[in-house]
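Task: sequence in, structure out. Protein: BON domain-containing protein.
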Amino acid sequence: MKSIQTVRLAVGVAIIAASMSAWSQGSETASAPAMAASGSAAPATGRKANRALRRQVYSAIVKQKEISAGNISVVAKDGAVTLNGTVTDPAQVNRVAEIAKGVPGVTSVTNKLTVQKPLGGM
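Result:
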């Protein structure tokens, strides 16, 4: 009885080890073409760089007290930033775009912001 449990445990460990090995090989081969395509000389591209740029733009918008950034979303891809959402004042549409353009690393801004109409208003 004890030998059956030992064999089951050994088989389970072998399956887990094989799965981990296959999983790690899959991620290495998946990242190799990406590194070859982007080259090592361009560290400013990729998901991490896009996320970092998005955070920097959003942080710059949030610092402006007159702008309610809660309804603004920022999408960044290789320096191109897209602004979506709503603002409370028509002047803020262009102001938010100017703030985004001033963030280092931003190469272009697509402004899709709209003015939010007040509730109950016409």
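The chain has two domains: 1-39, 47-115.
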